[in-house]
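Why should sequence recovery work at all? Because a backbone constrains its sequence more than one might expect. Tight turns favour small or flexible residues, buried strands favour hydrophobic ones, and helices have their own preferences. The token representation captures these environments compactly. In the example below, the structure is given first.
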């Protein structure tokens, strides 16, 4: 691939960028993406006033890059979602032209669900899109934030319309919505146990126990089934990330927490049996 000139903030890092190859996917809409869902943007960690870095996902066995605390929270939440089987960060960039308006847009996350439906997410804080209207004409900072939010909402309306035109699912994922989906402490507890090993014998015993229990059993009882782990409860929770098991992410994680089979086929079998 041709070597492009890196931006000034990347000087000295020896960064080689892929040439952007744009494909028209609809009139006025072009798309650029890298192979294997690699992030299309280079994350620069210096001189930022917000969190940047990556969340290591045990679900997909790779890092998911993030550029803010809400994005990190969203990546961790999707990692624990029982129906999510794959996660990519900044998977593509669109160039959208509507009349004289030209917009360049990159979604924050792309999640693939168990039914192979792909959903692109724009992660935002509610207050960044809906700040309070300044009360005083002299509030320069307040009006700056107000105008920035107005422009962001207008851009996202164009983005939503573009994705609808090409038949792709795009959704805003706000911090208020994440509050309704999961308790951050419960997500953190599950993530902290990611990577704990569960051997095949314990996997079979645990699955057989859940099937015999109608598809659900308390974490403490599930942990008693596990024989070959130094922390059986953690090994069970790690299977939530693997998308084999599921828990209520809004509730606290303790030994009474119900553990259930996440696989719909297994759920139906447990109910039928």
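From this structural description, the recovered sequence reads:
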């Amino acid at each position: 691939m041709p070597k492009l000139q890196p931006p000034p903030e990347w000087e000295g890092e020896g960064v080689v960028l892929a040439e952007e190859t744009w494909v028209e996917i609809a009139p006025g809409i072009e798309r650029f993406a890298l192979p294997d869902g690699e992030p299309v943007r280079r994350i620069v960690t210096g001189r930022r006033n917000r969190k940047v870095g990556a969340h290591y996902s045990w679900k997909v066995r790779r890092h998911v890059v993030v550029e803010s605390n809400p994005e990190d929270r969203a990546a961790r939440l999707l990692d624990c979602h029982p129906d999510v089987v794959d996660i990519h960060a900044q998977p593509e960039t669109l160039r959208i032209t509507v009349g004289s308006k030209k917009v360049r847009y990159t979604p924050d996350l792309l999640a693939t669900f168990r039914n192979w439906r792909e959903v692109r997410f724009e992660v935002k804080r509610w207050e960044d899109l809906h700040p309070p209207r300044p009360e005083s004409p002299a509030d320069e900072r307040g009006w700056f934030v107000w105008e920035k939010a107005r422009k962001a909402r207008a851009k996202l309306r164009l983005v939503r319309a573009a994705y609808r035109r090409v038949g792709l699912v795009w959704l805003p994922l706000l911090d208020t919505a994440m509050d309704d989906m999961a308790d951050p402490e419960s997500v953190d507890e599950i993530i902290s146990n990611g990577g704990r090993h569960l051997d095949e014998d314990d996997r079979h015993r645990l699955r057989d126990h859940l099937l015999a229990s109608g598809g659900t059993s308390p974490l403490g009882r599930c942990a008693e089934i596990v024989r070959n782990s130094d922390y059986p409860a953690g090994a069970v929770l790690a299977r939530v990330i693997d998308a084999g098991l599921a828990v209520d992410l809004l509730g606290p994680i303790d030994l009474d927490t119900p553990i259930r089979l996440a696989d719909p086929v297994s759920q139906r079998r447990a109910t039928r049996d």
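A few observations help interpret the result. The mean pLDDT is 88.
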